[in-house]
Amino acid sequence: MKFILGQKIGMSQLFDKDGRVIPVTLILGGPCFVLQKKTKDKDGYQALQIGFLKIEKKNKIKKTMKGKEYRYIKEEKLADSNSEIGDEINVSIFNEGDKIKVSGISKGKGFQGGVKRHGFSGRNATHGVKHEHRTIGSTGCRFPQRVIKGRKMPGRMGYERISIKNLKIAKIDKENNLLIVKGAIPGHRGTLLEIRG
Fold first, then answer.
1. Whether 135 contacts 123, CB under 8 Å
2. Mean pLDDT across the chain, nearest whole number?
3. What are phi and psi of 13, to 5 degrees?
């Protein structure tokens, strides 16, 4: 299994052989470095801990971060890996046309009403409806005289972990560590992404 950390740069477009537009997302994929290798004998499971985006400013590095001066550190369970501590992982582990799974945090949209959050239709624009066009209406029932748990209501929207499977790699720029992926990816510019192949 292939695993790398990346950062969303933004969206763009490519043209295929027939001149059709392909919407793509640009991802800065690594380089990541292996910080720790966990084994079944010592830790009870096999995994690699990798770091992404080295912290350059010395005053930002805490004593507890000694040897792991990276902004993002993630661990991935791997059945078998030939990587050793200090090894670099970059976009060259992927090939053009590969299918990948990308996980990230979606854009936060704050506190939203039922119409935007759940797609409710709202009330009529006529027949005595005044200042209630986007309200959710009745929330309870005659029995058991309370609001049932799990009822779709207004609340905090977005800022959730989302995974998208079967995204196709349209192009790879190994010199600039760029992955160009067909389609949209969750999050704003600069969002940390976990890319699995």
1. yes
2. 88
3. -145, 150
